[in-house]
């Protein structure tokens, strides 16, 4: 556990609810003093009675009553205030987490398994981070209390100091124990997610067809059950181990307590200490047990809170490192976009190797290659969803990392094959391509083909889409693609327009028509802003229209040039082109 995590929780509380947080901080030392004062008061009462000292008796009774009452009421106040604090500050942390996840310019956190694990652990946990984090104050309170108790006991006999020290192994063991449970939870997070994914597969209509044809529903349910069983077994094993550790700690202390009482009785019989001292030791010893349990609980809460806060810090750092750029994007491209020595991997084997490529301003560039050759990855790097492992991407000589990500996004438009099916009104589904102009969709809807889709919907562009609404209409794959394409046409002056196989569900004639309409509009803005169009397609009728064709193979650029140049070269492109041409003959 590092100090940074505790500081994160504390500073969030101070920022959002300073008064409540300061109240809790102020209560900490007072509540640490109260139990010791109660025990002392009780000793004074007994000694007052036995020695006939009225001041000792009355003072002792008052001290014991006041400290006891304050301890009881104060702890209750702290509990309530801590609950309120968690309820108020937790959602603020959640909001922050959601904002980071949703607005992070890069998307690697949503695609890499390790990052997904971490995000799963923090999603919606703000309240728990705070309520567990407040246990940090309880821990401080009990540690202070242990110190006071040590002083009181040392006054009786130096050897009694070891009594509260027996809390230390117990504390350490409980820390190990909570760490163990946390680690098991983290290790089995993948099981949990896989199981949820499988459940979604059984219940989603998208996979229903294949599941029924392959009769694999029962098989998948079996895998989900197995994963669940593995997770439960792992958690059960670590809970058992944790119980053993905590019990060992407690037993150790009970033995020491009995020894301490024995010693005090002998001291009292020898007349070295007053008889009331026995009550002091018994009260302090009795408190140690309760405080010890509270300490174990508080420490394990703090460890859990720190574990969650660590993920919170990780996300914050990731967000900050992804949003370092501040420079504005150029209004118009003069030179173009240049990739130099770009290498990239998704954490596994390299996916792009030493990519050197110049996309000249105003050009239409087509990426060609087998599935998995790295086309979409290249597109994602250009959009700024990922950063190259090595090498640079520059826009008119300016590094993409230096540009303000939001500004660059405003100048990009893209339509992907794995398009989003937004459950909005049909018109809005197009309009969100450029939020400030969400209702100004006529032109984009015409060019991307959404207008034809609207014509067939019961309420036209006011029809609710998506099956999550009772009145929502589900579209066909091709219709969703037309909506997505139109959405991509919303931005009227992009610097980079990407069409990554968004027309794969359309027939060849419709795709050709879409690209013709697109090319007509693109010519205008390509001249106006020097914008670049990047096409990914498997259809050569579309590809051959490009000014530059780039052929990728296993993450390497193996050829580039115009259609005529590449045909003349008689290499890979010419071969693929020949295959498709032959198939149409
Ligand atoms: P293409 O667009 O040419 O079909 P991609 O760029 O999608 O190729 O993929 C290139 C390689 O990167 C493939 O081997 C693919 O398996 C891998 N890949 C793509 N996306 C991811 C991801 N999110 N995580 C890990 N590997 C990925």
From TrEMBL:
PROSITE patterns: ABC_TM1F, ABC_TRANSPORTER_1, ABC_TRANSPORTER_2
Subcellular location, principal: membrane
Annotated ABC transporter domain residues: 337-579
GO CC field: plasma membrane
Subcellular location: Cell membrane
One term of GO molecular function: ATP binding
Key words, A-Z: ATP-binding, Membrane, Nucleotide-binding, Transmembrane, Transmembrane helix
Name of this protein: ABC transporter permease
């Amino acid at each position: 556990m590092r100090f940074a995590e505790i500081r994160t929780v504390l500073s969030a509380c101070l920022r959002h609810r300073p008064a409540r947080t300061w109240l809790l901080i102020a209560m900490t030392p007072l509540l640490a003093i109260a139990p010791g004062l109660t025990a002392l008061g009780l000793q004074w009462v007994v000694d007052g009675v036995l020695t006939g000292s009225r001041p000792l008796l009355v003072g002792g009774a008052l001290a014991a009553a006041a400290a006891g009452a304050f301890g009881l009421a104060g702890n209750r106040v702290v509990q309530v205030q801590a609950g309120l604090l968690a309820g108020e500050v937790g959602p603020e942390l959640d909001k922050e987490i959601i904002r980071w996840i949703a607005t992070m310019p890069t998307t690697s956190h949503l695609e890499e398994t390790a990052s997904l694990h971490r995000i799963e652990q923090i999603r919606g946990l703000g309240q728990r981070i705070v309520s567990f984090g407040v246990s940090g104050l309880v821990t401080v309170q009990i540690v202070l209390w242990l110190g006071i108790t040590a002083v009181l006991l040392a006054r009786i006999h130096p050897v009694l100091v070891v009594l509260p020290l027996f809390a230390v192994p117990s504390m350490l063991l409980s820390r190990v124990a909570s760490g163990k449970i946390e680690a098991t939870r983290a290790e089995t997070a993948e099981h949990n997610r896989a199981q949820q994914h499988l459940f979604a597969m059984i219940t989603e209509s998208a996979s229903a067809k294949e599941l029924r044809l392959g009769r694999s529903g029962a098989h998948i349910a079996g895998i989900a059950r197995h994963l669940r069983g593995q997770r439960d077994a792992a958690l059960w094993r670590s809970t058992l181990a944790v119980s053993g550790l905590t019990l060992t700690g407690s037993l150790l202390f009970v033995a020491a307590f009995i020894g301490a009482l024995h010693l005090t009785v002998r001291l009292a019989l020898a007349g070295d200490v007053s008889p009331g001292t026995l009550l002091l030791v018994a009260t302090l010893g009795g408190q140690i047990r309760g405080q010890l349990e509270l300490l174990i609980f508080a420490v394990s809460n703090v460890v859990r809170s720190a574990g969650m806060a660590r993920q919170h810090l990780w996300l914050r750092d990731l967000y900050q490192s992804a949003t370092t750029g501040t420079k504005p994007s150029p209004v118009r491209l003069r030179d173009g976009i240049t990739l130099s020595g770009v290498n990239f991997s998704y954490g596994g084997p390299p996916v792009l190797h030493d990519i050197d490529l110049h996309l000249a301003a105003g050009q239409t560039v087509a990426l060609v290659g087998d599935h998995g050759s790295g086309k979409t990855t290249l597109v994602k790097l250009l959009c700024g969803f990922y950063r190259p492992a090595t090498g640079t991407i520059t826009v008119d000589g300016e590094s993409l990392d230096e540009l303000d990500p939001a500004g660059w996004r405003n100048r990009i438009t893209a339509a992907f094959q794995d398009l989003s099916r937004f459950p909005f009104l049909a018109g809005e589904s197009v309009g969100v391509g450029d939020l400030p102009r969400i209702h100004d969709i006529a032109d984009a809807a015409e060019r991307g083909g959404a207008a034809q889709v609207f014509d067939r919907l019961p309420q036209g562009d006011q029809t609710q889409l998506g099956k999550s609404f009772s009145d929502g209409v589900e579209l066909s794959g091709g219709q969703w693609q037309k909506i997505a394409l139109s959405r991509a046409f919303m931005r009227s002056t992009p610097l980079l327009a990407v069409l990554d196989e968004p027309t794969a569900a359309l027939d060849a004639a419709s795709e050709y028509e879409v690209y013709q309409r697109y090319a007509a509009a693109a010519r205008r803005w390509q001249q106006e802003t020097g914008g670049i169009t990047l096409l990914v397609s498997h259809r050569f009728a579309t590809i051959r229209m490009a000014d530059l064709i780039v052929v990728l193979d296993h993450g390497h650029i193996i050829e580039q040039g115009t259609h005529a140049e590449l045909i003349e070269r008689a290499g890979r492109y010419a071969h693929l082109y020949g295959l498709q041409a032959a198939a149409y003959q």
